[in-house]
Amino acid sequence: MIRPTPRFALWMGAGLVAALVPAAWGGQTWWVWWVFIVSLVVVGVVDGLRLARVRQLELEVSSPTTLGMGSTAPLEVDIAVPSSQRPTRIDMLFDMNDLIAPVAGAALDVPAGGAGRHVFPLRPVRRGTGQVRTLWLRWRGPLGLVERLWVVGLDRSIAIQPNIAAVRAFALRFFGASRNSAGIKAERFLGDGSEFESLRKYVPGLDTRSIDWRASARHTRLLSRHFRAERNHQVIVAIDSGHQMGEALEGTPRLDHAINSGLLLSYLCLRTGDRVGLYDFAARPGKYLAPQNGLAAFTRISQASAAIEYGTDETNFTLGMLDLSARLRRRSLIIVFTHFTDSITARLMLDNMSRLSRRHVVLFVDLADPALEQFELDVPRRLTDVGRAVVAGDLRRDRREVHDRMRRDGIHVLGARPRQLDMDLVNRYLDIKRRELV
């Protein structure tokens, strides 16, 4: 589609002003206005004829097939105008659905007879099926009086899933490095676990309580038992999918922060020999995946976590925790990802967490909102800034009070920022495993 540009409209407006001149001069110069208008139309037609045609453009759009929450992926646009005799500037704008963050428009300068490329960063907002629907292209003639608009229907579907790529990167970094692998092996042979590993010759300096007197009598020399950290623990990743978990932190919903970190921890647990299960709850109990071992279980866990939907109702902690407790027959490490607003609404949650911690080891994970901390630190310039800082301070104080109450009840608490959650969670899990608390 060819249409006039704002520059053409500006010149046309100037011609209308010039039309007042014949009236001021007694109508003797009316032909000046007609000459101007005809000349402008002729120049516009010539400018339109020199526009690059649609069939002269070679367009290629490369889009990813999957997107991980919390990550970005490139959307590449390649445009070539091989028959063009002059450089062409092409404006581009994409139309997408609301599962992908809006992408700002961009201009691509294509040299004469050459090609150009522009890369747009795609960032997912929520899990689901993202749509890259339409690409709008616009370029102008040499004089800028006429422009051509080309609407390209793409209809590209992008599966937005939990960030498995981050788990792969963590696995390569954590298990691929020799020092990390050595650390994991050393944990098995430290001798401070509770699972019997082997017998070895007793030497001065070892704990005398580890001496196996019966084996020593058989072999006529002192032998001591060697222990390793117990394996085959049962770990449950419990994720709250209520409406409060839909709040975005640093561009990603709390729910997806929890899913990404839960997947990373699940992979680590499976690699270290533990059994991992998945449970989600909101207004009523959701999906439950029984604890399994082996890396093959990670695929089932990732598929189940990708199917967790964003809730719109208030979370029922009583129903959710009672259902989970009824499903578990052995002592487990339960990692609960959830969120609360203030100490008043958290009372029911506290009661159920305390009841659950009597039989199991509970790790409560609550993401800190960096915006609240910034509101307190910012220098107030208006009265509304003071009110915002006071509310942020009250919310943070309530959060600390709830965390302190949980610690007194024997619940392990982890409050971390989104960027620090992964490593803090891994370190806390390794600490619980090292201390043989499960």
Task: Explain what this protein looks like in three dimensions.
The chain is α/β, with parallel strands linked by helices. It has three domains: 54-161, Immunoglobulin-like (Sandwich); 164-185 and 230-434, 3-Layer(aba) Sandwich (Rossmann fold); 199-228, no CATH class. It has helices spanning 6-18, 20-24, 30-49, 164-176, 178-188, 213-219, 254-271, 296-306, 317-327, 347-356, 370-377, 383-408, 421-434, and strands at 2-4, 58-62, 66-68, 73-80, 88-96, 106-110, 115-122, 128-140, 146-161, 195-201, 223-228, 234-240, 248-249, 252-253, 275-281, 285-292, 333-337, 361-367, 412-416. A hairpin with a 5-residue loop joins β8 (128-140) and β9 (146-161). 28% of the residues are buried. The model is unreliable at 178-191 (pLDDT under 50).
Summarize the structure.
With 438 residues, the protein is an alpha/beta fold.
Considering the protein shown, what is the CATH homologous superfamily of the largest domain?
A: von Willebrand factor, type A domain
Average pLDDT rating? 85
Helix content bin: 25-40%
* Sheet with most strands: 6 strands, mixed
DSSP E strands, number? 19
The number of helices is 13
**CATH architectural grouping of the largest domain:** 3-Layer(aba) Sandwich
Rg, rounded, reads 33 Å
Ordered list of secondary-structure elements with their pairings:
Blueprint: E1 2-4, H1 6-18, H2 20-24, H3 30-49, E2 58-62, E3 66-68, E4 73-80, E5 88-96, E6 106-110, E7 115-122, E8 128-140, E9 146-161, H4 164-176, H5 178-188, E10 195-201, H6 213-219, E11 223-228, E12 234-240, E13 248-249, E14 252-253, H7 254-271, E15 275-281, E16 285-292, H8 296-306, H9 317-327, E17 333-337, H10 347-356, E18 361-367, H11 370-377, H12 383-408, E19 412-416, H13 421-434
Parallel strand pairs: 3-9, 12-15, 12-17, 17-18, 18-19
Antiparallel strand pairs: 1-9, 2-4, 4-7, 5-6, 5-8, 8-9, 10-11, 13-14, 15-16
Helix pairs in contact: 1-3, 4-7, 7-8, 7-13, 9-10, 11-12
